Amino acid sequence: MYSLNRPAPKWKFQWLLLALCILAGSLHAQNDCDDAVEIASLPYTISNQPVFGFGDDIDCGLYIGDDYFFTYLPTFDHCADVSVSFTAPFVGSVLCVIVSRNCPYQAGGEVIAFAQYENPGAPFSGSIDLPHLELSADSIYFIAVQLVASNVLPRFSMTVSDDSCPPSCPTALFPVNQSTPFTIDSLGWENVNADSFIVYFGTTPSPNLLGTTQNPYWYIPTWTDTLTRYWRIEPVLDGIHNPNCIEATFQLLNPDLDAFPSYLDFCPAIFSNDNLDTDNDMLGNACDPDDDNDNLPDSLDNCPLHINPNQEDQDMDGTGDVCEMDYDDDGILNLDDNCIAIANPDQNDTDGDGWGDVCDTCPLISNPDQLDQDLDGYGNLCDNCPEYANVGQTDFDIDGTGDPCDNCPSLFNPLQEDSEDHPDIPGIPAPDGIGDACDNCPLQRNHDQADLDQDGIGDFCDTDRDGDGHVDWQDNCHQVYNPDQLNQDSDFFGDACDNCPTITNGNQLDSDEDGIGNACDLDPEDDGYENAEDNCPAIYNPNQADTDNDGLGNVCDNCPSHANANQSDTDGDQIGDLCDNCPDMPNTYQIDTDHDGLGDACDLDDDNDGVADGNDNCMVLFNSSQTDTDEDTFGDPCDNCPLQPQLFQSDEDNDGVGDLCDTIFIAPKVGINTDNPLAVLHVAGGHIYIDDEEGRIIFRHVNGYCYKIKITDSGFPAFSGSMTLERINCLGGD
Prior knowledge:
Layout: E1 2-5, H1 13-29, E2 37-39, E3 44-50, E4 58-60, E5 63-72, E6 78-86, E7 93-101, E8 110-119, E9 127-135, E10 141-148, E11 155-163, E12 177-178, E13 183-184, E14 196-202, E15 209-213, E16 218-219, E17 229-237, E18 240-241, E19 247-252, E20 670-671, E21 679-684, E22 687-692, E23 696-700, E24 706-712, E25 722-728
Parallel strand pairs: 2-5, 12-19
Antiparallel strand pairs: 1-8, 3-11, 4-5, 5-10, 6-9, 6-11, 7-8, 7-10, 13-16, 14-15, 14-17, 17-18, 17-19, 20-21, 21-22, 23-24, 24-25
């Protein structure tokens, strides 16, 4: 059996055993490495050489035998291959080839490679190869060939030659303790010069193979315990392995020594058996002062793991209902209790609907759904007023309908008739909610049940509402009792309801709403001045201001700045003749464009530019030259599009710029953002045209990008081209 070994890692047990064996052998045989054969340069070859004890005897495993020693002192750093072949057969033998830095029997001796072969049976005539040995110029190397044989003396041949070097090991080391699992991404790959890597990973030394990769980033598996992990990286270059990289360890931090590493532990500093976090607030129950997050600290919460801010405790045993197996403490577990919240150890259920009598909203009528529309504690099936809460089930008239929903609560009417609801009676409106038994207008909708004369007939259907013996359409006071019908001023309003009984006032106007009609009220506008001394008796003006002292207050004077006691207003425009800039032509707003004292309504030249309005192409703006560049009959000063003919002066956005020229263009055939344009813009007839020699149009979008539309056309006989849309970066700024 042949085995090739390297110190990878250097401190592995088997190498420690080998070192101890060599040390023991050296002490046993008192070896001093003095008889070694010097190798002056490479390549070096020795052929058909017998092993007869020229060198010192060393231990090879459990055996002690003859050896042959060589030394080599390299003049520069390089790698070498040691190949040993046996030219004579042997049986029952043990073969060792050992390479060490310095003498293996002395302090500082370090074995860098060895191979061992045990052949208890058939003759062996093969070879052992130790390739890619890294040698340093500052060290001396010893090569020992040893054979323990049971019959013939064997012979060997050896060649030592230059060889390619393996890739170097990563320089970075991992921390022993870490807060979270990690990714291998900082091993100093740039100094390794490997083309691939073999990763070993496990929970014991000499870990199992995890995988191989050509990517310098390696994802270590995520784990949830705090066991020590071992791993080793083995670089590979052109198929050459370097198994000598050291083995590292890793362990997740866990200061509280529970089963959960810190990165998964909701209470990293407090020991926890379960790591529970009931309220999902990332704070575990072991360290959360309010596990259920119901704003009650656990020390005061009667059910700390279930939200119950009201702390309901039906049986008052100190354990909240939401976490108690028997809320009402009646000896029946909640799962089996037909009244969970009310103690009923007898579990009586008269109507057999699954609800115990003590908590059944209808204990005598089966109602498994327990519907209670008005939430008064009585189920709909047994509630005398299911639409309105009636906790006491009051029913004054004992007609079976509870008072809150009885349309006649004081009169027995079990049918609850309300004639306005009958669809078969033509002309009857919707019901008024008053039952016929107590409705003073059973066929007329009158919710207020008003009855002025208290005769039991509602006003809505009473022909004599005031009960004075005169039907309403003949009564001069149909809402005031006046059987004598006195009417001193004969104005259709009887004295009993006339606000001016001695003065005719058919409109009953009462400006100040004091119950006295204006016709007989000495101060109808109630401004503190009686009509005889009020300068505006019909308009409220307590300050009595009269700027022109014509006896009429400003608030009712049609020319408050000019005395005109007669209030003459020829054109009837509410502006007195003395201050009207067009006294013979109505012009309430008194517009006078040229401020010549003559209102536009009667001014023949409103802008005073010497051109009469009838001939002026801009009547309200001075333009004596009558310039009209676009010849659309609107002079340039008042043309909203002076360079484009626009007869109707349309301006859809009301910005003062006519629609035909309200665009981004400067002038027809002006290039956009360039002095030598490939694209020009035209506006004609309200349409925008873009001439682009390259067939492209670019739009800027609010998302910050520009979009280029490109159109290609094959031309004759018909359009058969294509259009593409491409998102591009915008040029030329915003």
